[in-house]
Amino acid sequence: MARGAEKDHLTRAGLNLIQQALSIYDRELRLAVSNRPFQTMFGLPEHLVTPGASFEETIRYLVEAGEYGEVGVPAAFIRDRVEAARAFVPHYMERRRANGRTISVEGSPLPGGGWVTVYTDITAVKRQEELLRGRSEVLSDQLLEHAEQLAHTNRRLEATIAQLEEAKRELTEMEARTRLTTEMTPAHIGHVDRERVYTFTNRRLATLLPDRGSDIVGLSFEDALGPVAHRLRPSLDRALAGEASVLEFTEPASGRRIRTAFTPDQVDAGQPINGVYLLSTDVTEEAQARAALAQTHKRELAAQLTSGLAHDFANLLTIILGLQGRLEKMDLPEGAKELIGATQTAARRGGLLLDKIARISGPIDMRPVPVVLRDFLDSFAPLARAPLPPGISFGYACDISHAALLLDAGSLQDSLLNLVLNARDAIGASPGEIALTVREVQNTWLDIAVSDTGPGFGPDALEHALDPFFTTKGEGGSGLGLSMVYDMAKLAGGHVRLANLPGGGAMVTLRLPLKPAEAEARPRLVMVVDDMAELRAAVRMTLIDMGHQVIEAATVEEALALSDIPGLDWVISDLRLGGEDGVSLLTRLARRAPGLQLALMTSVPASDPRRREAASRWPVLQKPVDRVHLVRLFAEDVAA
């Protein structure tokens, strides 16, 4: 027997065993449940004790059977009974039936609508009361009347107690459902009273503050929250005064961004404040996205402000260089050529500065892909050591639990090289060390720190080093290196911190969002279509080095013939295939195999109409196609 059917069978059997008659009608006054004594007590036919039977039909049957004795206007009597039942008012009454027996009728409304009624045969009790009254010669009539009233009151009290027990059970179930709901909520919900003591918690505090306990009922606000309590206390004070507020702050230990709403516990306006409800949520990812978006808007604004000026300034530099070139050809007095050379050098330096400004304010396409960080560092170390003099060493350490992370490897490499070169310049001619350390913070942030044994940052540098054009290198620096690093970190949703080390030296820390990724993409079967064998071979070797399998096709016909090979994942075709078109090939493949991943590669510029049309439908790789292009392509496949 199924579990539900077995439970229903046991419930019905238990109801049939009780001595009292029971009926439950729903809000439409249709029978939902009844037991066997209900049928036998009133002699009801089977169709009136079947679920769905009408209450009105049951009353009509009882009236016609003489249950209520002589009824003057049966239709009006039936209507009054139905209307009284629809009112759903709790009641208790005792009624003498036409057969001479006496029953008590106890009715109670149900929370979801409907009605439960219990009928008890109290004929024996009433007879004892009558016998006591008829035979008593000692007890006064007043005492008997009081005894009868007391018995009647007791029966009413029992009915009331039953209703209170049912209400208690419903409140207990409601409290259990409320607690379950709050504990499933991905936020911490708490309540503190006017004495700033926690009276409720959904035991989710540890998900926001890992170093704090979750069972904080009975603890003071300061003891429960620890060091962050002083940040929240002013908002709590305002809430206790009746002012709702929202506070967003950074938890120092984990670096998580937390938003807490303070809502006064006040039933009605003008009533005293009973305490404060606190709702705290982790908005770290939202804050990272906001930071990246804000930095993008800043870059767009900077680009709008500088593009026109840069264009005019570039024209002026061109004119200056042209005029200096003409002056250089003239017969000038001694010393003039040196001045011309210095002017030309300054103008060319201005051109290089314009290029750097364009790179800072111009659009950057951040393309995070799965990066095995230890492999990245192994490849980065030779690049970092190459520009260092013999007296300066470079070392790195990596302490992360994730095999791979989503990072823009190119931007990160440029930023770290910039920091290494800055550290080299700070150390100068003296021997020194440069160290790169990588660690994760509370499974939320990735901290990448570059430290050196140089003199450290001066007060001005600590305050302004991230500002554009600030430099301590004199004419040898542009003041844009750290600004570019800061720009990359903000675009990724992170930030940059500068600090001096206790034993001497400086440290720059990139804090980036920690986004775990698949360490290695699964091996794919890729078809490379190109009419030049040398180009096919170059792409094939790159794919094989990445661990993928490759088949080749030189023409559209070969590609179509090979496209039926089982397990084929990708087709990467040249945009031009001799006299044929790669777009038409991919169009036919898309119709034949809708699940096949398709991409094009080309050397034509992005302004070419055919390339623009193709890019609206499929990814387009710029030749020469290298490993980075392919990693990004397959990473987008995984993300999709």
Question: What is the secondary structure topology, with strand pairs?
Answer:
Elements: H1 3-17, E1 21-25, E2 31-34, H2 36-42, H3 55-64, H4 74-87, E3 91-96, E4 102-109, E5 115-121, H5 123-135, H6 141-184, E6 188-193, E7 198-201, H7 205-208, H8 221-225, H9 229-240, E8 245-250, E9 257-264, E10 275-282, H10 284-328, H11 336-361, E11 369-372, H12 373-385, E12 392-399, E13 404-407, H13 409-427, E14 432-441, E15 445-452, H14 459-464, H15 481-491, E16 495-500, E17 506-513, E18 516-517, E19 525-529, H16 533-545, E20 549-553, H17 556-562, E21 570-574, E22 576-577, E23 580-581, H18 582-592, E24 597-602, H19 609-615, E25 620-622, H20 627-639
Helix pairs in contact: 3-4, 10-11, 12-13, 13-15
Strand content is 15-25%
- The neighbouring-strand order within the major sheet is 2-1-5-4-3
The chain-level structural class is alpha+beta
What is the number of beta strands?
25
Instruction: Return the CATH architecture of the largest domain.
Output: 2-Layer Sandwich
CATH topology of the largest domain: Heat Shock Protein 90
Instruction: Please tell me the overall pLDDT.
Output: 79
At the fourth level of CATH, the homologous superfamily of the largest domain is: Histidine kinase-like ATPase, C-terminal domain
Helix percentage range: 40-55%
Name the CATH class of the largest domain. Alpha Beta
- Main β-sheet: number of strands, strand sense, barrel status? 5 strands, antiparallel
* Low-confidence region ranges: none
**Count of discrete structural domains:** 5
Termini separation: 46 Å
- Total number of helices: 20
General shape: elongated
Radius of gyration: 42 Å
